[in-house]
Specification:
This protein has 301 residues and is of the alpha+beta class. It has a single domain, classed as Cyclophilin (Beta Barrel), CATH 2.40.100.10. Helices cover 17% and strands 26% of the residues. It has six helices and 17 strands. The strands form three sheets. Strands 14-4-5-12-11-13-3-2-15 form a nine-stranded antiparallel beta sheet. Strands 6-10-9-8-7 form a five-stranded antiparallel beta sheet, with no helix packed on it. It is globular, with a radius of gyration of 20 Å.
């Protein structure tokens, strides 16, 4: 509808137009390490995920090993719940496992369960940028290298936040049972999952393709899609570093410790657009602050 479009445009301009009229300078971006860039091919398009190994080194290593073993190729997003998550793998711990009896039989032998990495020790770092206002779910929140994180200074712990686009491993009831199954947040921010599951990445591009995935019924087998042909496949998953440089995409992420980002955050906190005839409270939700990403297409030799 025209009115809806006007509202959306007005809200966007209030954040972006004034602070980024000329765009951020090149030095305000960092290039994503291709060793930490996961590319997921779906029938709708490619999803790019940046990993954060410093938060979960063992889970990151496991995911890379699974991808390089082509574990996920030809499997599917078997549990997709509208407004919540899209989960992929063989369906470990769900009725979906029966669809892959051979893989399931040797699963734990090949891919032993991992010890949880729900949080990590932290020390003050120059790349952490606090959001600047209180948070309902954590003592302190902010950004580190583009990732939304929370910190508990008294505990000296830090963890990734479950914002839309967060990439994490699923598990059973026991905390130390993650093995092969992953999920991506496709709806609201389920912050109640923070520090209860191991999150170690975020989507950089391709959320629109995840939103097209076939949904399951959350009231039937926790959203597992029983009809196999209805499931959308994970056609292929790759680590960008394994693709020739002339064939792989690359991504640049705004440095969240930069002045440009700080100015953009403050403009969002105190919008100057005339669209806001009634000024909103100067309080931000960590998951509502966009982090600019640029995709750089492959270049021919």
């Amino acid at each position: 509808m025209k009115l809806g479009r006007m509202l959306a445009v007005g809200a966007f301009l209030s954040v972006a137009a004034a602070s980024a009229a000329d765009g951020p300078p090149p030095e305000a971006f960092r290039t994503v390490d291709p060793e930490n860039l996961v590319l997921i091919d779906t029938k709708y398009g490619q999803v790019a995920v940046e990993l954060a190994p410093e938060f979960a080194p063992k889970h990151t290593a496991r995911l890379k090993a699974l991808i390089r073993a082509k574990f996920y190729d030809g499997l599917a997003f078997y549990r997709v719940i509208d407004g919540f998550v899209a989960q992929g793998g063989i369906g470990e711990g769900t009725a979906s496992t029966k669809d892959h009896p051979t893989e399931a039989a040797d699963l734990e032998k090949k891919w032993p369960k991992l010890k949880a990495e729900f949080d990590r020790d932290f020390a003050p770092t120059p790349t952490f940028t606090p959001l600047g206002n209180a948070d309902l779910m954590a003592p302190e929140v902010g950004f580190e290298d583009g990732f939304p994180i929370a910190r508990a200074p008294d505990e000296k712990k830090a963890w990734l936040i479950h914002c839309p686009g967060t990439f994490a491993f699923a598990r059973d009831n026991d905390p130390d049972t993650a093995s092969t199954e992953f999920y991506i947040v496709i709806g609201h921010a389920p912050r109640r999952l923070d520090r209860d599951l191991t999150a170690f990445g975020r989507v950089l591009s391709g959320m629109q393709y995840l939103q097209k995935l076939q949904r399951g019924d959350p009231d039937v087998d926790s959203g597992v899609i029983a009809d196999l042909p209805s499931r959308d496949p994970t056609i292929r998953m790759r680590i960008a570093a394994d693709i020739p440089a002339t064939e792989r995409p690359s991504f640049q992420v705004i440095r969240t410790e930069s002045k440009w980002f700080a100015d953009a955050v403050e403009l969002r906190r105190h919008p100057t657009s005339p669209f806001y005839f009634r000024k909103p409270p100067p309080v931000l939700d960590i998951c509502g602050v966009p982090v600019m990403v640029k995709r750089i297409a492959p270049t021919s030799p």
